[in-house]
From TrEMBL:
Keyword Nucleotide-binding: yes
Gene3D superfamilies to which the protein is assigned, alphabetical: P-loop containing nucleotide triphosphate hydrolases
SMART domains (UniProt xref): AAA
Annotated Gene Ontology cellular component terms: plasma membrane
Domain ABC transporter: 11-267
Location relative to the cell: Cell inner membrane
InterPro entries assigned to the protein according to its UniProt record, in alphabetical order: AAA+_ATPase, ABC_transp_ATP-bind, ABC_transporter-like_ATP-bd, ABC_transporter-like_CS, Oligopep_ABC_C, P-loop_NTPase
Signal peptide: none
A GO BP entry: peptide transport
Keyword annotations: ATP-binding, Nucleotide-binding, Transport
Name listed for the protein in its UniProt record: Oligopeptide transport ATP-binding protein OppF
GO molecular function, one term: ATP hydrolysis activity
Designated gene of the protein: oppF
């Protein structure tokens, strides 16, 4: 139980960036006279995760969603910026240090099989963090807690003696969730947790996650490329494009009145916001190479509203009248067509 005074936002990120040096080895560069190559995966993003709510991040493949998750978990070191968890700066904190703080954040991944040790039985997979973090002192306590966690995620106590390959994809994701819950985290970072699952199983896992959030009051960062899933899960929604947040705000505001042409493009590809079973049109145009991003607004090569200013000046994320924020010159200049009009056409 956290005894510290609670901040309204459980996590606050300011101007966080991640640049990967993807240069060839020094000698090759010297001989071939090639310069260093740097890929900016995350570019000065700032956001707050409200306590007990779901902060969703959506965007096309390669826009930096997983890199954000890995930075928050301390699996990558940020190139710049700060990360505060309940007011404490954890920017340079390696995973597990100090354990008391790190155990309050956990992560679940897209591929539950890859994140579960195939040679371990479930009782060891879930029991390990219980022992390592000193949550359970005796074997009997560990067994009791493992069985309780399995039941909480909709599995049975008897599953403790099985190996991961004995479960279906959906059941394995339940196992990952049970393992993440061992430390009773206050913040759960979920990176595409249902993308690898059959549509019929997707909604079961999403419902389980919602139930657990209600029961334990957890905050979620929920990453997905699927707007229908995001609509179901999010309280606050951030739209990412090429390493930047281009629009962020309460889910209803973003869905009812998107103020960024990229958000509109994403929404136009979802004919109906229902989880699972619907064919979605691919998003038109290609995501530019993040090694040499376009100048100005990086969305300009795909944007029907681009002007010369867009091609040269990067737009700021500005607060608009409805309280959400968007980074678009057309929105700032009142040039965006009304969304209702577009939707009716
Ligand atoms: N360790 C790394 N070294 C070099 N480049 C990386 C590394 N990790 C990610 N990248 C690059 O950073 C960019 C963002 O990748 P990231 O995995 O965060 O995107 P994503 O939004 O999660 O995509 P997806 O939806 O496909 O999972 C990509 O161009 C990717 O190639
Ligand atoms: S800033 Fe310009 S190019 Fe970028 S999304 Fe807005 S209108 Fe389009
Ligand atoms: Mg990813």
């Amino acid at each position: 139980m956290n005894t510290q005074a609670q901040t309204a936002d459980i996590l606050s990120v300011r101007k966080m960036s991640k640049r990967f040096d993807i240069s060839e080895p020094f000698l090759n560069r010297l001989i071939e006279r090639r310069p260093r190559r740097v890929l900016t995966a995350v570019d000065e993003i700032s956001f707050d995760v409200p306590r007990g709510k779901t902060f969703a991040v959506v965007g096309e493949s390669g826009c930096g969603k997983s890199t954000v998750a890995r930075l928050l978990m301390g699996l990558h070191a940020p190139s710049a910026g700060t990360i505060r968890f309940e007011g404490t700066d954890i920017t340079d904190m390696a995973p597990g240090k100090p354990p008391a703080l790190r155990r309050r954040m956990q992560m679940i991944f897209q591929d539950p099989f890859a994140s579960l040790n195939p040679r371990w039985r479930v009782r060891d997979i879930i029991g390990e963090p219980l022992k390592n973090f000193g949550i359970c002192k005796t074997r009997a306590e560990v067994t009791r807690e493992v069985e309780k966690l399995l039941t909480q995620v909709g599995l049975s106590a008897a599953d403790a003696k099985k190996f991961p390959h004995e479960f279906s994809g959906g059941q394995r994701q339940r196992l990952s969730i049970a393992r993440a819950l061992t430390t009773r985290p206050e913040l759960l970072i979920c990176d595409e947790p249902t993308s690898a699952l059959d549509v019929s199983v997707q909604s079961q896992i999403l419902n389980l996650m919602k139930d657990l959030q209600d029961e334990f009051g957890m905050s979620y960062i929920f990453i997905s490329h699927d707007l229908a899933v995001v609509w179901y899960m999010a309280d606050v929604l951030a739209v990412m494009y090429l390493g930047k947040i281009v629009e962020v705000g309460p889910k209803e505001q973003i869905f009812d009145n998107p103020q960024h042409p990229y958000t509109r493009l994403l929404m136009e590809t979802v004919p109906k916001l229902t989880v699972g079973g619907i064919e979605r049109a691919p998003v038109a145009g290609e995501v530019p190479n993040p090694i040499s991003p376009p100048s100005g607004c990086t969305f300009h090569p795909r944007c029907p509203l681009a002007t010369e200013t867009c091609r040269t000046v990067s737009p700021e994320l500005n607060v608009r009248s409805d309280g959400a924020q968007s980074a678009c010159h057309a929105a700032d200049e009142g040039r965006l067509p009304s969304w209702a009009r577009i939707a009716a056409e």
